[in-house]
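Backbone-to-sequence.
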């Protein structure tokens, strides 16, 4: 009996701290292909990708009672251009008209964003970049700085697979999230 209660409490805890994977794509019409991605527990602002990205955005597996937002600005400021609600995976295409400069998600009732201490800009950088190389293999690399973010964008546009492959793999380098 007690063990069951402990298990239920643990499961509840795990589900509330689950990170959401959310991405900004180069595609204007779908949430597939090259993308900068962020993983966090909500309340952050993620942005600072190059202008060729942010034309569609996706949140994978939003928990229930959550709200996701995408902004035209690069700092999650001003009015959000797009709002989505959990539960579930949500994709919003910009249609070539709307570009999203920053994205976030929050648990409903806690809309405050967490500020990154001493950050020069308000948004955190994406933690990974996913792309498909010349052999058709989807790869995920880790981004550690704004310089990484910009360099990776440049190499991706130049289809420089050698340069992209020199970045460390993110987790085990596989893409877990479903795409739609
Ligand atoms: C932020 O800046 C303050 C003042 O310069 C410094 O004391 C503090 O250690 C910094 N925090 C981080 C996380 O770098
Ligand atoms: C790929 O990037 C590397 C590292 O920046 C550079 O040295 C190399 O010349 C690039 N290759 C091509 C084909 O652009």
């Amino acid at each position: 009996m007690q063990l069951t209660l402990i298990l239920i409490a643990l499961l509840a805890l795990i589900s509330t701290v689950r990170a959401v994977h959310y991405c900004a794509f180069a595609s204007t019409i779908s949430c597939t292909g090259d993308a900068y991605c962020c993983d966090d527990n909500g309340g952050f602002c993620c942005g600072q990708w190059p202008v060729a990205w942010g034309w569609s955005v996706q949140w994978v597996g939003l928990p229930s009672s959550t709200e996701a937002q995408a902004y035209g600005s690069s700092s999650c400021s001003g009015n959000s251009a797009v709002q989505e609600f959990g539960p579930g995976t949500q994709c919003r295409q910009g249609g070539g008209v709307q570009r999203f400069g920053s994205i976030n998600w929050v648990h409903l009732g806690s809309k405050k964003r967490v500020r990154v201490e001493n950050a020069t800009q308000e948004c955190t950088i994406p933690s990974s970049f996913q792309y498909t190389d010349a052999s058709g293999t989807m790869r995920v690399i880790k981004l550690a700085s704004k310089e990484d973010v910009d360099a990776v964008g440049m190499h991706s546009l130049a289809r420089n697979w050698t340069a992209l492959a020199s970045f460390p793999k993110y987790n085990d380098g596989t893409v877990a999230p479903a795409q739609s």
